Amino acid sequence: MTIFIGTNGLSYAPGNAQDAGRRSEQQDSFGFSDPADRDFMAHGGLLAVVADGMGGLARGAEASQIATQNFIEVYASKNSDEPVPQALRRALEGADRAVFEFAESIGLKKDVGSTLVAAAFVGSGLWWVSIGDSALYLFRRPRLTQLNHPHTLAARLEQMAERGEISAQAAQIDPDRDALTSYVGAGGLIEVDAAMRALTLLAGDSVMLCTDGLFRALGPADIAAALDSAGDGQSACDALIREALSRQLPHQDNVTALCVKIGQA
Predict the structure, then answer these.
(1) pLDDT of residue 57
(2) Whose CB among 49, 147, 208, 233 lies 3.0–4.6 Å from 15's, allowing a Cys bridge?
(3) Which residues lie closer than 8 Å to 180 by C-beta, 6 or more apart?
(4) Is residue 103 part of a domain?
């Protein structure tokens, strides 16, 4: 088990796992910043990124890889004076631009895209940014909380139902509920979810980033149970992927999980 000591007296035990599920291609990507760079860790923290290439569009695997790689590279250029939220936004803009330019280069302008969720574990706490429907969870015993909001048609429909503009039934049966309303590669960020302030982390917390292949297979109680029983981030991710695949869903999507267990240094 690899443990990194942060500048805030906490330790971070990260892990990752993924599986193609029943898909012919793995279109999820993930990455971490370099925790061995102590100077960068002091102001940029430990960065975790998950991206999910959009299966309904072309070249999803390349889109997620480009998005992840460019996000990490741009964030790594952060200097000590740049606020973390600003660096995360700049990295997201860089990822969007890189995927858009890739699509243009192969004649598929606006037909290539990816979700992206990123979390930075810094001395002041947890900062994040996301676009699309990949999820960011905090498990603080005994409660599991999703920290980010999905950019899907379903989310918009449910808001319309709450305002009385459509019926709850109409919102539930819309055939395009799963369509994304914002994603990396559109050539401009339409909707972005980001932390307004740092979330203070406590020893015993678990933070997980995952693609929809996980949370469509497992409910919140299943996810919470796996995070609660795992001793570190890697065992948590292994257990979550194993449990998702055990459901044997006929259309199991690619599934990816990154987890960071927080401890006392």
Answers:
(1) 67
(2) 233
(3) 54, 113, 115, 132, 133, 151, 152, 153
(4) yes
| pLDDT value at residue 137 | 98
Residue 243, classified by CB atoms within 10 Å of its CB into exposed (0-12), middle (13-18) or buried (19+), is middle
Evaluate whether 54 touches 115 at the Cβ level (below 8 Å). yes
Residue 15 lies in a domain: yes
Which H, E and C letters describe the chain, residue by residue? CCCEECCCCEEEEEEEEEECCCCCCCCEEEEECCCCCHHHHHHHCEEEEEEEECCCCCCHHHHHHHHHHHHHHHHHCCCCCCCHHHHHHHHHHHHHHHHHHHHHHCCCCCCCCEEEEEEEEECCEEEEEEECCCEEEEEECCEEEECCCCCEHHHHHHHHHHCCCCCHHHHHHCCCCCCECCCECCCCCCCCEECCCCECCCCCCEEEEECHHHHCCCCHHHHHHHHHHCCCHHHHHHHHHHHHHHCCCCCCCCEEEEEEEEEEC
Q: Note whether residue 159 is domain-resident.
A: no
- Could you tell me the CA-to-CA distances from 162 to 121, 157, 165, 170 in Å, in that order? 35, 9, 8, 12
What's the number of domains the chain is made of? 1
Q: CA 264 to CA 10: how far, in whole Å? A: 5
In a domain, 53, yes or no: yes
- pLDDT < 50 regions, the chain: 1
pLDDT of residue 179: 85
User: Which range marks the domain in which residue 256 is found?
Assistant: 4-148+185-264
Residues listed for the chain: 265
Q: What is residue 58's predicted lDDT score, i.e. its pLDDT? A: 72
Vertex 151, ends 148 and 152: CA angle to 5°? 130
Check which CATH number belongs to the domain holding 124 and give it: 3.60.40.10
